[in-house]
Write a sequence for this structure.
């Protein structure tokens, strides 16, 4: 069972909200830095508050991405009406912002405000990988898409080098399709391929258990769904006890029981 790291949370009085305690250095779970980018539906204060009160405190920096500025928190604003149609525009804004702060962070996590992330486990996983590799990790889907792509709902984490290549060789050069699209994952994968960035769904732990979970907990917990997706090879009690404990003690008390959220790690 993994315990929480106690970091000091600094309220967002500066451009980038930061959590103290880490310095940049690849391949060391205690020193490399993770910047968390949260897709947020403007006006849903319940989800935003839950994220702020729980897991995002353990990121080394974070930003919400929304159509409306959150006055008390750093927000990357994407003009438009909240809808799935602007998801790709939001992801572009996230990655562009990430590229402006690459000197300060090693890894960049994209996730949604209905996702709970165990940052400590994410650090353990990333400690075996280099942020200088052109790669991003997540849960792989193969639904009618040649070569597969990573689930946006499960969240994905981009290496520093991947961010640079996607922005400078893909977005800025006009090589990638930047038009609005509701399936962000397809647009991102198309762009990544063109600039030499690889995706990896090989994110199981050393016991063959999943780390990125694209569906709501009740779906994954249902008997018979052990092999629901490729990355969720086995969801037995040992794998879920820590996550259930975290959710009950830290999350469900702060959001409505009707709120659907996903698990990452």
């Amino acid at each position: 069972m993994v315990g929480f790291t106690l970091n000091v949370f600094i309220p967002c009085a500066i451009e980038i909200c930061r959590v103290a305690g880490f310095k940049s250095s690849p391949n060391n779970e205690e020193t490399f830095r993770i910047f968390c980018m949260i897709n947020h539906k403007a006006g849903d204060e319940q989800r935003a508050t839950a994220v702020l009160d729980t897991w995002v405190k353990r990121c080394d920096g974070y930003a919400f991405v929304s159509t409306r500025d959150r006055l008390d928190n750093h927000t990357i604003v994407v003009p438009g009406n909240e809808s799935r149609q602007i998801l790709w525009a939001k992801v572009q804004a996230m990655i562009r912002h990430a590229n402006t702060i690459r000197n300060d962070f090693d890894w960049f996590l994209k996730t949604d405000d209905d996702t709970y992330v165990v940052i400590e486990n994410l650090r353990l996983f990333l400690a075996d990988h280099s942020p200088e590799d052109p790669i991003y990790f997540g849960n792989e889907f193969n639904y009618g898409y040649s070569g597969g792509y990573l689930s946006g709902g499960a969240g994905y984490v981009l290496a520093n080098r991947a961010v640079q290549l996607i922005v400078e060789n893909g977005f800025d050069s006009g090589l990638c399709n930047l038009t609005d699209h509701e399936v962000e994952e397809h647009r991102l994968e198309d762009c990544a391929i063109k600039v030499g960035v690889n995706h990896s769904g090989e994110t199981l732990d050393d016991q063959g258990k999943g780390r990125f979970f694209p569906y709501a907990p009740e779906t994954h917990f249902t008997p018979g769904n052990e092999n629901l997706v490729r990355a969720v090879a086995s969801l037995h009690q040992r794998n879920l006890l820590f996550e259930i404990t975290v959710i009950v003690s830290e999350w469900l008390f702060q959001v409505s029981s009707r709120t659907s959220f996903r698990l990452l790690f």
The chain has a mean pLDDT of 77.
